[in-house]
């Protein structure tokens, strides 16, 4: 169902009027925009609707502090909520300075166009007054001046009015073209078609392998060069793959410094951003794929944490849980090494961590001791 409405500009003869169609679920702010288009106003000023003893407009914090009655928000109130019956009449005021008062009437409801929520101008007569002309009196005075060839103010007005202004001119087609251009902002939100979410596309290893096999050597070279320039992370990854141990050791010292800086920076006290330190370790592991050097970083993380709490005293349960979980991860990695080389390389440091934590609160020492007991002796 749509509403067929008629709007007339008060106190002006012959009448300036329009008949137009709207969907009843539009807000009063949308109705204001529709009226601006169908009447020919330029939306330069404030507005207000008055109906059933209530005022509906955009909220103004400065005015609200001085008002002693409720003002409804035009962006939230729908027309249907306040206007139901055919013949209902309410007032639309535009430009509180010129005080253009319009009478709006719900002429009838139209169920035949229920599927089309777009506003449409159906009929009308005469052109809208000029903005800032001075209200009804100013408009009538301007028309008098323009119709008097030798009027002393004629030149002043002809230089001020908009080009091509004709008080008798009105075109439904022009109005409807403008309404169509603004359609998406002038219909209820429920009718707006949301764009379909694009289908998620992920490059799988089989698809990548298939594509790479189809490339020539020159194309492969260009692809690798493009990957190198795509991001710093990709540059680091390729450096390890191409330059080998030299690049790996350089990156290890870079990420070791990132971890240590969170506990003992070169200046000041460590910020103890454990998430940042752990993220650096994960990033190193992802870029280098070096299990042993990642294990070393994880052990350094725990050693730095133990040194920090020995230096500054008890921290909190979150801190000790983070240290214990990383320690448990290192124990698991050492146990997974079937050669026993990592046990020989790290056992003393793992034990030293446990011994140094005696007396630390939150059950930290006992937790580490239990984890150390899980180390598989070789």
UniProtKB/TrEMBL annotation:
Residues 3-173 form the Plasmid pRiA4b Orf3-like domain. Pfam families: PRiA4_ORF3. This is Plasmid pRiA4b ORF-3-like protein. It comes from Paenibacillus konkukensis.
